[in-house]
C-alpha cells in the first residue's frame, strides 16, 4: 500500500509540503492522470446545461434557502448544510444532487452537529442560475420556467421550505402556523406569490411568510410533502 493512501493536504503535513513544492515549481503532478480521465469521459470538460425538471427546481429552492456556492481557481463548490440529526434531509439532498450532477456527493462534518452536503464541479453557479456568495440583498425571482409550471413551482417551494420552513401548533389558542423565514425580500415575495398561485392565502410579517388557517396549513404541508422523506 502506498504511504500516502487516503492522505490529503488537509490531514497530512507531508502531502501539504509536497503540494506546495510542486506548486512553486509549477509542476502539474496530475497532468497525465487528468488527460486519461478526460479521454475516457470520467472527467467532463464541457458541462451541458442542466435538464429543467422538478428535481432541478427543488434543488434551486433548497440552495437559495440553505445553500452556498463558492469559486476556486479550477472549480466551484455547491454546499448545503443540515443538522446532523436530520437524516432524511441529508439522504434526500445527497441523492438529488448526485442525480442532477451525475457525481458522487460528499457528506462531511461541519462544525458542531452540522453535516455539509457538497460537490465540486465547474460552472455550477451558471448552470443553476444562482449567483456566487452572499445573496442577502440580491433580487432572486422565481425562474420563468418554474413559475409557469405548477409541478415545478411546487418542488421549488418545497426546496425553500425544507431549508427555511417550519410548522408549529399551539392547541391552547387554536393557533396553526406554516412559516417560511428568510432575510432576502425577493425570496419572501417568491414564497408569497408561489403559494398564492397554488391556491393558498399567505400573509407576511417581518422576514416571514405565514399560512395560518388550519385547513390550509395541513393542505400546504401535504401538497409540498414538507419533511416527508
The largest beta-sheet arranges its strands as 1-2-4-3
Task: Report mean pLDDT, rounded to a whole number.
Answer: 91
Strand content: 15-25%
> Please, what is the CATH homologous superfamily of the domain at 144-224?
Homing endonucleases
CATH class of the domain at 144-224: Alpha Beta
Molecular structure report:
By secondary structure, the protein is an alpha+beta fold. Among the domains are: 54-128, Homing endonucleases (Endonuclease I-creI), CATH 3.10.28; 144-224, Endonuclease I-creI. The chain has nine helices and eight strands. It has helices at 13-24, 31-39, 54-66, 87-101, 124-128, 144-147, 150-164, 185-197, 214-224; strands at 67-71, 76-83, 106-109, 114-121, 165-170, 175-181, 203-205, 208-211. The strands form two sheets. It has a four-stranded antiparallel β-sheet. A four-stranded antiparallel β-sheet has the order 5-6-8-7. It is elongated. The mean pLDDT is 91.
Task: Produce a short descriptive summary.
The chain is α+β, with helices and mostly antiparallel strands and 229 residues long. Among the domains are: 54-128, Roll (Endonuclease I-creI), CATH 3.10.28.10; 144-224, Endonuclease I-creI, CATH 3.10.28.10.
How is the topology of this model organized?
Blueprint: H1 13-24, H2 31-39, H3 54-66, E1 67-71, E2 76-83, H4 87-101, E3 106-109, E4 114-121, H5 124-128, H6 144-147, H7 150-164, E5 165-170, E6 175-181, H8 185-197, E7 203-205, E8 208-211, H9 214-224
Antiparallel strand pairs: 1-2, 2-4, 3-4, 5-6, 6-8, 7-8
Helix pairs in contact: 3-7, 7-8
